């Protein structure tokens, strides 16, 4: 028995998960929709229960009593007409029934009914009247509810003719049911509208907080947000403002410290560069030429300066720059022109006309310049392409160098990861960090020319 229970347990879990997925497909995805659904379902259930209680108890009881009352008057009329023999007496009773019982009776001697029973309407009145007549009289009858909106026509087949009785509809029909239904629906709609307005204001505060967090994650300074909405939302907004202020202070302090360290390091490096530049390159020490040693030291100093600049750029980020709308064609052409002056061989530049991106131009220029410099050092010919996609802009930088193997592409983005060409290992890290700060992403692929393709996606 234990083994059978254990074997059925995964099936039960799978069934519950399937049901949960089915429910999730039906439920609204937004918080506003789910909140309104939470309000709407109990409201509808409550109104349905109220309708059922009224319709199933009170209305049926009253309808049976009204039907019994009309049936009793009809039975009284039949008994009186059977015992009264004179025509004048029958006419007198018919007049009395019309005045005091509100029943218009017509005697048709020799007539025959062709229909029996009743034609249905909405409500319990037709069934209750038919049951009451069937229980009280032994003659066949037909009840017509549809010919006249104000009168119910009852035809009773007697042995020698047909007795037609016109009963006022108000003696059988309770029109208050529609008033009750209208009141229930209107009150439900009114309460739902009020709840919708209230929930919309609450959700608006949450959406504003989410939008502020998204903009802050993209590196845009939106300032503190105004706390509003429910108490929990206000606390979240206050906590977000405090977090934003702490992060800004931390970044500012870190940037200031690293800027001072960079300045302190660049000063002795500059003195070393001047000293090396003034040293004689054609002398000898212990019979060895100094030219090669001096050139190597100058290269080391330049590499150290480049490393310090990269470290500072990586730690500082680009959050202080204000984003703006930039046209991609002249922007990429300027970056390519600067790369060509630095020795890059950019052979193809294809930019779709009319492309605009909301970005920080200096940060993105640093990213593209870094990628073109990597392509120059590791490859030969470079091609730059930019075109529009469904959700933004795609920029491709291709080279015909050795490329990067698929298993090493993700590790190439790690800080201080150096390739075969050397370097500080921060170029791709800084570039992807800037692109992701814009809400995009960067991927490494194989270029059609056999080298490396860097794919940048921007919103």
From TrEMBL:
What are the protein's UniProt keywords?
ATP-binding, Cell inner membrane, Cell membrane, Kinase, Membrane, Nucleotide-binding, Phosphoprotein, Transferase, Transmembrane, Transmembrane helix, Two-component regulatory system
**Domain (HAMP): residue spans on this chain:** 200-252
Enzymatic class:
transferase
A GO molecular function annotation here is: ATP binding
The way this protein sits in the membrane is described as: Multi-pass membrane protein
EC number(s) in its UniProt entry?
A: 2.7.13.3
- Give the InterPro entries listed for this entry: 2C_sensor_his_kinase, HAMP_dom, HATPase_C_sf, HATPase_dom, His_kinase_dom, HisK_dim/P_dom, HisK_dim/P_sf, Sig_transdc_His_kin-like_C
The places in or outside the cell where this protein is found are:
Cell inner membrane
Write down the chemical reaction(s) this protein catalyses. ATP + protein L-histidine = ADP + protein N-phospho-L-histidine
Q: Name one Pfam family in it.
A: HATPase_c
Give me the segments passing through the membrane.
177-199
Q: Which domain of life is it from?
A: Bacteria
Domain Histidine kinase residue range list: 260-459
What's the protein here called? histidine kinase
Q: What phylogenetic lineage does the species belong to?
A: Bacteria, Pseudomonadati, Pseudomonadota, Alphaproteobacteria, Acetobacterales
């Amino acid at each position: 028995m234990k083994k059978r229970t254990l074997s059925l347990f995964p099936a039960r879990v799978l069934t519950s998960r399937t049901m949960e997925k089915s429910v999730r497909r039906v439920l609204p995805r937004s918080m506003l929709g789910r909140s309104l659904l939470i309000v709407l379902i109990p409201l509808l259930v409550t109104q349905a229960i109220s309708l059922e209680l009224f319709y199933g108890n009170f209305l049926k009881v009253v309808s049976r009593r009204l039907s019994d009352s009309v049936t009793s008057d009809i039975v009284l009329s039949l008994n009186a007409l059977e015992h009264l023999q004179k025509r004048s007496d029958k006419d007198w009773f018919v007049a009395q029934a019309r005045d005091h019982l509100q029943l218009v009776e017509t005697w048709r001697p020799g007539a025959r009914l062709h229909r029996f029973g009743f034609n249905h309407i909405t409500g319990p009145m037709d069934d209750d009247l038919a049951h009451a007549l069937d229980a009280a009289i032994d003659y066949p009858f037909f009840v017509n509810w549809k010919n006249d909106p104000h009168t119910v026509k009852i035809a009773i087949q007697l042995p020698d003719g047909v007795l037609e009785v016109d009963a006022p509809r108000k003696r059988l029909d309770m029109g208050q049911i529609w008033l009750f239904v209208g009141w229930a629906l209107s009150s439900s709609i009114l309460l739902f509208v009020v709840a919708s307005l209230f929930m919309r204001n609450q959700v608006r505060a949450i959406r504003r907080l989410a939008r502020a967090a998204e903009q802050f994650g993209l590196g845009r300074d939106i300032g503190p947000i105004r706390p509003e909405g429910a108490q929990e939302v206000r606390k979240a907004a206050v906590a977000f403002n405090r977090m934003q202020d702490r992060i800004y202070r931390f970044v500012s302090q870190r940037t200031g410290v690293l800027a001072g360290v960079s300045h302190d390091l660049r000063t002795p490096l500059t003195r070393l560069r001047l000293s090396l530049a003034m040293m004689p390159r054609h002398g000898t020490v212990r019979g060895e030429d100094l030219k090669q040693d001096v050139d190597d030291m100058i290269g080391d100093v330049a590499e150290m300066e480049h490393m310090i600049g990269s470290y500072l750029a990586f730690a500082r980020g680009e959050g202080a720059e204000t984003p703006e709308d930039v046209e991609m064609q002249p922007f990429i052409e300027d970056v390519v022109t600067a790369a060509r002056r630095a020795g890059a061989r950019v052979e193809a530049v294809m930019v779709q006309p009319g492309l605009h991106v909301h970005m920080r131009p200096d940060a993105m220029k640093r990213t593209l310049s870094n990628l073109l410099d990597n392509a120059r050092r590791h490859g030969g010919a470079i091609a730059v392409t930019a075109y529009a996609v469904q959700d933004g802009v795609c920029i491709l930088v291709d080279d015909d160098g050795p490329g990067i193997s698929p298993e090493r592409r993700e590790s190439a983005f790690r800080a201080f990861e150096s390739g075969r060409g050397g370097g500080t290992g921060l170029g791709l890290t800084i570039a992807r960090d800037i692109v992701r700060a814009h809400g995009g992403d960067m991927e490494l692929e194989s270029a059609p020319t056999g080298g490396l393709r860097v794919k940048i996606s921007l919103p």
